[in-house]
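Our consortium's second objective concerns turning raw sequence data into structural hypotheses that experimental partners can test. To show how far this objective has progressed, the report includes one record in full. It was chosen at random from the queue rather than selected for favorable results. The single chain below, 177 residues long, was entered without modification.
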Amino acid sequence: MGLAVPLLGFILFTVASYGLKGTAEYFAILIGGLLGAAFRLALALALFASPIIAFFCMLRGNYASAAVWFVSGIVLYFVGQAFKTVPTAEELQQKELERERKRIEDEAQMEKWREDDYKKRKVKAGLMCPYCYSENVIQLGTTRKPYSVGRALVFGMLSGSAALGALCGFKTLARIR
């Protein structure tokens, strides 16, 4: 009962500080760190104790037990190397920050690609300048006047017919690209 009250106070303070989801993450990291530290400590003690016990077995002449202790020390060493990569709370936090930074970079890259694709489509449609990407452009051929008096006069004088000159003053209805 003596340890339960401070422990309950610590849990309630953590819930009040981090919220329910943050508290669960906090305790998962805390318990994972404590278990990892306990496992490493037990592994280190076993790793250092096995050669010492093997040495004493050899002094007593029990070579079979010495070999078992020696092999168990080697096995413990490799097991320790495999579990050495258990991440700490700081490493988990660092990985989360790195993941968030990468996500932001990827979103920025995707936005840049979308913008480039948008510009290419606008340039291809003739709605944007291909050099400065200005949208303040006028398509060629859209401001042409439908009738040219000068052309009508020139063709009228060349053909000698006012009616033919008047007809030649009309522009052809070329397809606007």
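The partners drew two points from this record. The longest helix spans residues 4-60. The mean pLDDT is 77. Both points have been shared with the crystallography group to help prioritize constructs.
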